[in-house]
Amino acid sequence: MRYAVLGTGIVGRTIATRLLSLGHEVVIGTRDPEATLARTEYAAWQSANPGAGLASFAEAARQGETLVNATGGRVSVAALTEADAAHLDGKVLIDIANPLDFSHGFPPGLDPVDSDSLGELIQRTFPGLRVVKTLNTMNCQVMVDPVRVEGDHTVFLSGEDAEAKKAVRELLYSFDWREHTVIDLGGIETARGTEMLLPLWLRLMGALGHTDFNFHVQGAKRGSSPG
Known about the structure:
The protein is an alpha/beta fold. It is about 35% helix and about 20% strand. α4 crosses α5. The protein is globular, with a radius of gyration of 17 Å.
């Protein structure tokens, strides 16, 4: 599978590294490839991962069969707009971003929140995309290596397209998530709930002093999946 990971920060690089380790083709999407390569941190990662391509958002989206949104949530729509709807239509977009608003300092708030979500905003703005919200309720290292957290813990899915969610579920299994730990919440509007876990997650990080933790829904095995 060819994946286009949009975003060059720690989350995007971590996801890309895991995808490469599984034998997938990966191209990283960024606004300015030359400026990205000039960043010491990214250049070091690229040197350690020579199999990853680097391209503009539009070129990465054109190449990718499946897209991963790892951009900052406040700029996700702008990044996808640069990617060009012609390169998005019909493709699965795995949205792992959160709309964190740092305008009033730390800890950040969310924008949008409560009556809307980033997942919904992306789906509305790009109706040809098959958006699946997942992995946004944990640290990026836990996303790709769930055994960092002892015992069972939960990853959520939100989205309108059953086949897209099935494909994303299979990817989660390849990341070593177990079947009974994946909970399908239903349509993309349920992304409001998972995005609103972030203020709690940030405060838990402060209280615990580390990021190797996650949420666990006790009794999840008894529930039924929306599909």
